[in-house]
Amino acid sequence: MRLLAVSLFIFGLTMQSLAEPIRPFFGGSFGISTVNNNYMRQTNITGIDLPDHSGSDFQIEIGVTNDTYSGYIGYRSGNSTWDDGEIHHFFYEGYPIGEMDIKSSDLTSEYFVIGTRAQLKLGLPEIIRPVVGVGLSRGYIDRDIVYTPYNWGDAIPNNDVQRSETYESETNYGGLMEFGFALRPKAPVQIFLTYQIHAMLARYTTEQVSPVADQYEVRENAIQLGIIYNFKTLGEE
Fold this sequence. Notes:
Helices cover 7% and strands 65% of the residues. It is mainly beta. The protein has a single domain, classed as Beta Barrel (Porin). It has an 8-stranded antiparallel barrel with strand order 1-4-5-7-8-12-13-14. Strands 9-10 form a two-stranded antiparallel sheet. The chain is elongated. The two termini are 33 Å apart. The relative contact order is 0.21.
């Protein structure tokens, strides 16, 4: 909450210093994403990264904007899947201890986001503006996997057994960066196309089988297409 208050205060000062009319806005976007559920780690035990998951996400947001800068709060949700199957090897202090064959993996995420964007003029026609933005996120990313377990010691998967597990993440925090273009075909509507990178650390509370981990480093890359509707300038009749 302190970070939110400070961010909004700084944003308000920026708006005032630029002396540009402020308008509230509402927007939404849809993205095609690739999620990398990265390096698994626990004391003395390591495993290779999980492959990239492919999926989609959407985001809705409200905020205030002037002709150059905007600040917003939003809700973001996504789902991605990987189902090609791959054997993962695990090591204890450098020695192989076994393997498991992951049949499929699904990631589901929900986040609240606070962020800011800048639309740069750079001498371009008014209809198009380069966009850069940053933000902070708070939420969770859960994982469902179907796998064949390994036998300890002989590194041979037990193919007679297939299991499914759901890993519920604790609340985690991340950062968001985006860059792209905003199209301004006709006021009060804007269309934007951006490339987004969303990175976070996820801790899971229900880890029962390998891969066991203290935390996962997760990175989501998305091509995001969205639309924003700008309301009347504050104080305008």
